[in-house]
Design a protein that fits this description.
five-stranded mixed beta sheet; about 10% strand; 12 strands; about 425 residues; alpha/beta
Length: about 425
């Protein structure tokens, strides 16, 4: 494995205020996203369990570094590009995970998964998402994360709004909301991946998951009827006032989209990790929280039950060998324990574990959505190679201010895909 340990100087630069001793020989460095509640509590769980129960016997101590989502992605990319990587780190599988494996920064965990019985704890589909060529390279954590619409059931009942079944129904509902002085979609698209959810779903509803898989394997193109349809719809919705003013400058890291929802916006298309955040910061709103999946396209031949998301909110890969690899794996294994399952469920999540249940009404609805789905389309910015994913996000963001045509947005993505395929031919 092409693994390199941090030098003391690099550790200081990358970890900021964290003491350089955090990356000493007897420590296991762990990078994740737990900067705010409830994520902080969830990520702390395994670290505290290991440091309390295993550290003295093993001689290792876990030191964690938490970074907000979008800064984390850049930070991890810089660390890997410079030949350095923490011992444990979270990611979202897909194309980037393949890059981590090929670069030697993600150990094969298959034997450890079987040794510690984790194959019997996780759902088969979640472990499949963490696998490449039949080998497991990551551990799913926290939540089955899919993109759904969130809404205030009490407000909708008061207004007489009904859950839309088709895109035509959705547009009619949004037109009524605009007439009622309501912004239909609570979207904060500064980081670009939030707006991408609309694009991905519209493509999937129009042409199916095959659109993106064919483009990735070179048998298809991202310039097609489905991507043009998606881009055209988004620009129509912008012009009709479905999105908030300054949508591309609003940030989900600041909770701008949730704030819009609390203040009376019609609905919010976001990942199901938002359930925990809403429950934590606005319990009253949570009591009336409703969810529904993206509406169908009535005359489409594509499978309309496919949902967009991931079967694991995050995935942990390990950059270590020998004894340290096994000790780091023990840390990750705590995220499959009964204690963690109960914790994450209490915070509003549905973990990717076979024993996952919920007494929460909103999670029961989400379990139903998951059960009725024929498949899960992985987020494009995780499915695609990193270079193409970046272009996908920057290009589709331009639809939300109508600064580029749907055709140009599709072509920009395909040009990036063509370049990637040419560089990796053979």
């Amino acid at each position: 494995m092409k693994r390199k340990l941090f030098t003391a100087l690099t550790a200081c630069v990358m970890a900021g205020a964290l003491s350089c001793s955090a990356f000493a020989a007897e420590t296991i460095s762990f990078w994740h996203l737990g900067t705010d509640e409830p994520d902080k509590t969830m990520w702390n769980y395994a670290v505290e369990q290991y440091n309390t129960n295993d550290s003295e016997a093993s001689g290792y101590t876990v030191e964690q570094v938490a970074t907000v989502n979008d800064q984390y992605k850049s930070k991890l990319a810089v660390a890997m590009a410079s030949g350095e990587c923490p011992d444990m780190y979270i990611h979202w599988t897909g194309g980037p995970m393949v890059d981590y494996i090929n670069s030697g920064y993600a150990a094969d965990l298959t034997e450890l998964v079987d040794k510690y019985g984790l194959r019997d704890l996780y759902t088969e589909a979640s472990l499949a998402q963490a696998s490449v060529d039949g080998k497991i390279y990551a551990i799913p954590v926290k939540n089955n994360s899919i993109a759904v619409f969130f809404y205030d059931k009490a407000m909708w009942a008061d207004k007489g709004y009904e859950v839309p079944e088709t895109v035509d129904d959705l547009e009619a509902l949004c037109d009524q909301m605009v007439a009622d002085g309501i912004t239909p979609f609570a979207l904060a698209n500064q980081p670009q991946w939030t707006g991408s959810m609309y694009y991905m779903y519209l493509v999937a509803r129009h042409g199916g998951p095959e659109v993106i898989s064919a483009a990735y394997d070179g048998t298809g193109s991202l310039v097609n009827d489905s991507t043009i349809y998606a881009g055209t719809k988004i620009e129509e919705w912008v012009e009709k006032g479905y999105f908030p003013e300054g949508v591309n400058s609003l940030s989900p890291d600041n909770g701008d989209d949730r704030a819009l929802l609390y203040q009376g916006a019609g609905m919010m298309l976001q990942g199901t990790w938002q359930v925990g955040s809403i429950k934590e910061e606005n319990p009253d709103f949570y009591e009336n929280l409703g969810v529904f999946t993206f509406p169908t396209i009535a005359d489409s031949e594509a499978d309309q039950s496919v949902i967009v998301g991931t079967l694991g909110d995050n995935f942990i890969s390990i950059n270590a060998e020998g004894e340290k690899l096994e000790e780091a794996f023990k840390v990750a294994a705590y995220y499959s324990s009964e204690g963690f399952r109960e914790l994450t469920q209490s915070l509003g999540n549905i973990p990717p574990l076979q024993a996952a249940t919920s007494e929460e009404a909103v999670n029961q609805d989400l379990i139903t959505i998951l059960g009725e789905a024929s498949g899960v389309q992985l987020w494009w910015d995780q499915y695609l190679p990193s270079a193409v994913a970046d272009v996908h996000k920057t290009a589709t963001q331009k639809l939300f201010d109508c600064s580029e045509t749907p055709e140009a947005v599709a072509q920009e993505q395909q040009d990036a895909m063509d370049e990637y395929l040419a560089e990796n031919a053979g």
